[in-house]
Known about the structure:
This protein has helices spanning 52-60, 82-86, 104-109, 121-134, 150-163, 180-191, 207-210, 228-231, 234-241; strands at 13-21, 27-36, 41-45, 67-72, 75-76, 89-92, 168-172, 196-200, 213-218, 221-226, 244-249, 256-261. The protein is an alpha/beta fold. The chain folds into two domains: 1-88 and 166-233, P-loop containing nucleotide triphosphate hydrolases (Rossmann fold), CATH 3.40.50; 98-165, no CATH class. A six-stranded mixed β-sheet has the order 6-7-8-3-9-10, with helices on both faces. The chain has a four-stranded antiparallel β-sheet with strand order 2-1-4-5, covered by helices on one side.
Amino acid sequence: xxxxxxxxxxxxxxxxxxxxxxxxxxxxxxxxxxxxxxxxxxxxxxxxxxxxxxxxxxxxxxxxxxxxxxxxxxxxxxxxxxxxxxxxxxxxxxxxxxxxxxxxxxxxxxxxxxxxxxxxxxxxxxxxxxxxxxxxxxxxxxxxxxxxxxxxxxxxxxxxxxxxxxxxxxxxxxxxxxxxxxxxxxxxxxxxxxxxxxxxxxxxxxxxxxxxxxxxxxxxxxxxxxxxxxxxxxxxxxxxxxxxxxxxxxxxxxxxxxxxxxxxxxxxxxxx
Length: 272
């Protein structure tokens, strides 16, 4: 059975009691079970060192769980060859560093490697062009990556992932080092893709508008999982992140704002 054979009601991705221990015997992730459905945008959140990136690596098939099993469309991820997995799963990592001398066109073309020989050269070019168009960079196709802004670099990495024609897209802190507008624009772009998405996000205010579901990690364990409004509750946010979550009426629009506030602590010895 291939990774692309599906049942209509089956989850896209299933993790059952997975764990991972580093070479120094430190447990990074322990006992995580979750499912991801078709079209879902799952945000994995948690404080630094919570095990988010390790969990993402196991879900994406980049790390083999030390315990438990991850299934992609019902197939054990560990049994898939890298090329077969790459025809279904694309990953944009936070440490990815494309060669700055490479053109956007050539870099995005790397996404076609798992499909080598499957279609004609003309079809390959169409796929690459459409991937660049979807991220708004078609006009820059001949530019070198080193000439791009931070936001443009993130978008070209997503274009490379789209050229793989995946069914799942994994993103590890994709908004790092971007300004507020670029962060919002990037996640709006991802949300508009017809893909199942699993993303590690560190910026809590971005989560409610982007994610359809949230997984909260703390000390290597999954401590909450569900819809954003159900998970981003004051008690959970305070316990895990040591911040307060407030829902306030928007001053100019008929909607609420979700605000994450760091409680003020008066310095020791300060006047009362």
